[in-house]
Amino acid sequence: xxxxxxxxxxxxxxxxxxxxxxxxxxxxxxxxxxxxxxxxxxxxxxxxxxxxxxxxxxxxxxxxxxxxxxxxxxxxxxxxxxxxxxxxxxxxxxxxxxxxxxxxxxxxxxxxxxxxxxxxxxxxxxxxxxxxxxxxxxxxxxxxxxxxxxxxxxxxxxxxxxxxxxxxxxxxxxxxxxxxxxxxxxxxxxxxxxxxxxxxx
Length: 201
Fold this sequence. Notes:
Layout: H1 2-35, H2 39-51, H3 55-64, H4 68-78, H5 84-102, H6 106-138, H7 145-198
Helix pairs in contact: 1-6, 1-7, 2-3, 3-4, 4-5, 4-7, 5-7, 6-7
């Protein structure tokens, strides 16, 4: 609490951003854990069922395994009377609807990662201005160097806090963005397979 008091309003903002970043990271990890499925096993199981034309069973499998891939499979099964080209367009549209869910809050997380060190720097600049202002009130001849050193050290606290928040946030942001990109690529690769499996020539 003492450090927060020394850092002033900027330190409070940085602390708030750190809490927000932590909440987003936890929420995203829980989300990806919830939608995690063995895709190869799911696809093979669905192919086996769909070759037998057991479409209701296929829909049931998709509903019991909520994930982006399963959602695409469900759309494909529901629109199985389409041609391959129409099927592909329909599945791509469904895939585009899945992307916002995958990328949810990532823009905010990236913003926090980039803004935190800038806020820390702002806190340092304003703190130094205040420290030099206090020193100037005493006059150059009687100013105490220790007073200036104390003021600067307190001002630098916000820079340190901003960097401490930014570094792990950047790391988690990059990790989550890469994870989302891999999921999107896998979804795109499945589009043709689904169209061939269910679409009519």
